[in-house]
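Bit of a strange request maybe. I'm writing a small parser for structure token strings and I need a real example to test against, not something I typed by hand. Could someone generate the tokens for this chain?
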Amino acid sequence: MKTSWKTILLWFLPFFVIGFFLWQVFFTSNNSEVGKNVASSKMTYGRFLEYLDMGWVKKVDLYDNGHTAIVEAIGPDLGNRIQQIRVELPVSAPELVSQLKKAKVDLDAHPQSNRATIWNILGNLFLPLILIAGLALLFQRSGNSAGGTNSAMSFSKSKTQVQIETNTGVVFDDVAGVEEAKEEFQEVVTFLKRPESFTAVGASIPKGVLLVGPPGTGKTLLAKAIAGEAGVPFFSISGSEFVEMFVGVGASRVRDLFKKAKENAPCIIFIDEIDAVGRQRGAGIGGGNDEREQTLNQLLTEMDGFEGNTGIIVVAATNRADILDAALLRPGRFDRQVTVDVPDFKGRLAILAVHAKNKKMAPEVSLDAIARRTPGFSGADLANLLNESAILTARRKKIAITLLEIDTAIDRVVAGMEGTPLIDSKSKRLIAYHEIGHAIVGSLLKHHDPVKKVTLIPRGQARGLTWFLPAEEQSLISRAQILARIIGALGGRAAEEVVFGDVEVTTGASNDLQQVTSLARQMVTRFGMSEIGPLSLENPNADPFLGRSMGGRSAYSDRIATNIDMQIQTIIQQCHEIAIQIIKNNRVVIDRLVDVLIEKETLDGEEFNQIIAEYTVLPEKLTYISRL
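Reply from user aminoacidic:
Good idea to test on real output. This should exercise your parser:
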């Protein structure tokens, strides 16, 4: 690596300045000490005058422009022998010279060296010059690194990470689980490679594509794959880098970004987390951020203003499309919105295959089984799952990832780190009845998901956990399924009430009650699944900057609000009664399951169902829900 002389000078400049300063101080101070070290003893000025009056002073040498005197004196107090004594003279003593002449004292003055004077002058001039030169080099270096210019005020330049190379290192084969999105972007790649195939029939490619989806679904990776497939320059920047405290800096960075893009067209500009700069203008209490709104206005103009940007395609990503400004989403700017949602079973299987390429898996590990066990997992979650499995494998000193590591990693990703196992006590038995209550109610309800695992091993904030695994991908949920989930969530509290009595119920059902209340409220206000009727009583356009629940005035009367509360209470109360009835009717098998669970601490779904089958006929799933 070649190092310039400016860099070397910049590194050694502080040491040079400090060294020069210390040398100057040492030299001048050393010169000023001439004569002081001749005399080892000191005398006050008043004592000196007394010696002069008594005639003991024989010779006086003046130094430092008359500020210091070396006196040769002899007398009884000095052992009747000549001694040299240093005296610090006052600044103004004009009568001293007259007194010395009158006493016929040998007087000699030693002027300050011209060499010291010259060095003082040079030091006072040279040190500021060195500091100015160092600051100039520092500003020049920061200017070159920020924008390729020599300006120290280059903070207005965009901080884009430009990849002039035609290979970003990512292609469509590296992105799995988003097949629909890749098909949408295939047109963009074709336009960048062969634009004549579109222009020949009068078609024009969209100027902007907005990627919308939850975090971790691969939006940024997909944008890199577009540039990698097309082989064009890739400009990437975060939306937060446009927003600064200085007025006009954000708009200047937008102009600079598009200027660079025009010089390298055709190219792709990728803006990650565009909601940081593209939020609705004028939203919020007291108005909006003027600087951010100016930046957004400049972005709108650059994308579709008076000057066209032929060959520049803007790709942006966000998980908050609901708060973006309407002008940003209109045709001509972001013409298309591509939803990148959490993958389905086939998508999860493809993602696992991509991330398992560099993992050493045991022969019995099936990616198909892992994909079925991880509904709702995003691409980032699946990558983290396999990585956690590999870490556990290395920690346990195994040579390949087994099903045990996969199961532990799934539990850790879903529920958190494993805690200290519970000791045998009344608390452990109560938690066991609570979890078995969830499991038995869920297993005996016709429309509930089957049990995957019941455990008493604490994870995260939970003292025990019950996992239910959906039998199939569920894009739509029926009323019977929602009611079944409410009854299953109330199974833990119902078991505590039946087994231990009302006075012994615990706070362990707090999260269950929150989930139950939320589901019941959505049934009434969003899904129209109550006696109020098929009405949507939630305002979908509530201001997100004020909070969903306080963004606007209620769209219904106080009487409807009272009916909503009554319907929610009725649904939960009826589901609670069904959960209690199921617990009472199956008390024998519940006691058996609790004993096994306390002994083993973990029951998988297969063993759980085998024990239930000894006491209950599973095909006769309970149909309590039909009564609601």
